[in-house]
Predict the 3D structure of the following.
Amino acid sequence: MPVGDRTPPRRFRQRAFFLFAFRLALFAAALVALRHEIAGVHRADVVRALRSYRWPHVTFALICTAASFLTLGAMELVATRAAGDDAPRAMPRRVSFATAFVAHAFSQSIGLALLTGAAVRLRAYGRYGVDARAVARTTATVIGAMMLALVSLGVVALAGAPSMLRVRQLALFGWGMRAAVAAIVVSVVVLLYRARRRVSLPPLHIVPALVALSTIDWLLTGAVVAAFVPATSLASYVDIFRAFVVANAAGMASQVPGGAGVLDVTLISLLAPSVPTTTRGTLAAALVAYRVTYYLVPLCAATIAAALGEMRRVRRTSSHPTQPIVRPLASHTRAPAVPTPNAVARTDDSPSPLSREPHSVEWLIDNADAYDALLDAVRSARQSVWITQLAFDADCAIYSRSGSKHTVLADALIALAADSVDVRILLNEHVLQNTVRAFRRYLGTTSRIRVRGVRRFPHFLHVKMVIVDGTDAFLLGSPFVNGYWDDARHAPADARRPNRELSGRPLHDVSLRVRGPVVRRLESHFAELWNEAYASTAPDAIDEDPVRLTHARCDGDAGEHAVRMVRTLPRRALRDAPHGATEVLDALLDGVARARSLIYIEHQYLTARHAVAALVTALRRERDLEVVVVMNQNPDLTAYRGWQNARLAESGLLAHPRVGIFALWSAAPSCRPGIAAINQVFVHSKVVTIDDAWALVGAANLDGLSLHSYGDDFTGRAARRVFRHVRNFEVSLLVRAADGSVGAVTDLRTRLWSEHLGVAPSDVAVRPPEGWLAQWRAYAAENVRSLSPGADPARERPTMRGFVLPYSTRPTPAQQLADVGVRVDPARLALRFDPGWFEVHLSAGWVRNIFA
């Protein structure tokens, strides 16, 4: 059976089933307990109690609810002002209050407050240029203040109780329990203080204000319950609030949306001993009234407000002309750079014939060379520069070969646009990825650069492409973000490479520059994406032209052409491809099926089931086939580590004798004598070569999101079904050893192997008698010996030849080195990147990279 069709491993199914069963059992137990508590309560008693509420009760509860949400709005205002730069401070106050209302109304009813609140805030604050980091800090600050206030209030309220709360014969919160809870609060504060350098904490001066506001919010929320509980049923509001605090803590700990069942049964259990059996219907009625007043009414109002906001946004988006003027596509015989808006050109709906003009392919290995070549081409542009990117930071710097000077890429583009060069930039612009607004702010209102956003959530624009004058195209591996810069030395630490994206790890990537007929295909694809993208709707943005670019249909080049464009497209994303496209996957499977002696894979991830299944089939078919894989042990998306290792284990590739899997590491002298710095090299390449005759290079990863379906990567059946049609916009180039590209594939492989193994390209040009894998394993084993102290304690500082070490499935870098035989001795090796358990499985960097 193919690997892509296999049932997930038993241990993963059992784990998912256990978690689901545990939560379901918790909810069911709460319902059973609730039914037991109100067993003697008749429906007529509850209805009678509900009808007994007069307008003072309802009005007081609604006033407390409104005051509670206003308090949450004030917390939001304080948190946003402290979480970002000038953008949150310039945002109108009404936006903070409205967003807080919608975010809390949704999160308290749906659950998962961190994700739900962040999604609402990203949607609302993105219009005002607030970046994802500020949104994440705001969400975490508000939720943290609410939890800290709840626990602190519980300790204070219970410590002053004249008697302990009881559930039947079980006493809650004696002095020992109170002391334990207080110790937990103090411990959390101390741990946060000690971790202040690694955790982005809010400024100290706003913490008392946030905790005070959150305390007021909890008091007002408890007052809503007290408004519906008969005054004679309990001694005072303090007793109600004590029970309310415990019930809310139980509801939050259960992770059930809204604490449904758990909060109710806990509150009734705590209040029931003080209520006569004959009047327990009043407690059930009070909970119903509380749910309606504090949950249902705000949820309905927030839904209406969000719907109205989306309608206004759609109305503004569709306000540009519905029948735009047609603009000619840039071609090899080009029109003026910026034609008049009234210029009309032909509409070409038929595929253009393949030109026999030879292609020119130039491999750009590592981003120092790639960006340098790109900057030279951009500066020489005379007519147009068209860019598609995953992300584009306005301060992205391109360093000179000497490393002493740098150029901000955005400034170079601004200068080009000022000289009447047609500069167009296409970026992601949705709730999970948006650098459009920040980039527009940097450009200002006078720039002639046109910027549009792709809003196809949950699909990402992952194409990283630059087309200069319609004749010169770059397919880049990395986004225009400073953390992705590096050169061929891959120094373990470099000040030009910030820690923000990849924790400062060195980065290896591969890009390419191409000339020839395929550039026309790339231009056509850009035109398709541009026409389907959104122009700016911000009131302070420059006026976007309504011109549509004409293009030929991009059905892919047939036959054995030397260079061919292949794409991945979501369904219903482009008018010319309503069913989407999986051309990258089709090309990959076809190439692997033709492999005879060598498959070389250098990729960021390897999680796609179809790709792994094709490798297994090829190894079974060809007895002499060898597979060499270079990839990451700690991907930036932390879930991918588990998926990747699961694919390798279940397919048998990890232990296959004709498969070698390797990771890249960098070791260099540190500032301390006798000690070497060592760091993981983050592999960001997307390269597959086969038999030195076939190469697939571009933007597409070997994961479901880039090839076919994001759902294919998941283990659970429910997630696989939910995400089964989610895939990115991708473009890669298929290069065959034909026509003008003869030797291009061999050149790519030998240059990559020369860098990784630390040898001359001629040393890896011809297959050795013992095979390629024996050569790779020998170099990796030699690096292990060089990094280890061995029997000679006087051995000099650890060194490496090249960057290759064996791959390990262990979670942390220190464990990975130990697993392959390298002992991390601080007296000899200074490990630069060594995340803990939490960061390996769900790191802050992973969340930031998704939401930035």
Remarks:
- The two ends are 40 Å apart (CA to CA).
- The first strand starts at residue 165 and ends at 167.
- Residues 542 and 704 are 38 Å apart (CA to CA).
- DSSP finds 26 helices and 27 strands in the chain.
